[in-house]
Specification:
- The chain has 214 residues and is of the alpha+beta class.
- It has helices at residues 72-77, 79-91, 108-117, 127-133, 190-197, and strands at 2-5, 9-12, 20-24, 29-35, 38-42, 47-50, 59-62, 101-102, 105-106, 135-137, 145-149, 154-162, 165-170, 178-183, 199-204.
- The termini are close together.
Length: 214
Amino acid sequence: MQYRTIANLNLYDSPDLTRLATQAAIGRYLKILSESPLQVMTCEDDYPGYLDPNDLKYLEKTEPYQAAVWKEREIRDRIPKIIAFTQAAMAVPNEYLWGGTITPNYDCSGLMQAAFASVGIRLPRDAYQQEAFLQPVEELIPGDLVFFGTPEKATHVGLYLGNQQYIHSSGKDRGRNGIGIDQLSAEGDSVSQYYYSIYRGAGRAIESYIPTKL
């Protein structure tokens, strides 16, 4: 049985419901994995989390989620709207929120996921999952995702805008505590320099994510 959300919901990374894992905006599809504790999965991206039992009233039964199939050209045509989504998100007061995928507060991969979802294209949830899903590229064009982290794993992601600039939601300690634009180069301010020092590479969306666990 699958459900759709009729309110924005928080999903947590453990049954004690103290740390946010992700969020499910109105209209997202959920599948219940276990009832005690109440563990669910967002159907569009196969992402598990724990739901507050008090939020069950915000779920309504629905037909199973059907993933849309997109061609690469169709995705490229929608890149301007995806970029515009991130810029509009930056224009309103916001701050970095671990697990955030709903306006106004996002984490890095949550902003990417929300921006693509705004035009119907689905990406996996976390930065390392997004990196693995996308087609690796060397020559960047606007709309590519740029990844940062350790040699072993991507831990941060942004959206390339062109002219060596990218937009991303970064944290308090090493970033801007919210959405900002930085330089993909060793020049620029300390935030740009830090992220460039841990730059891993880039990827391009050529398809929309198709769930594997429905």
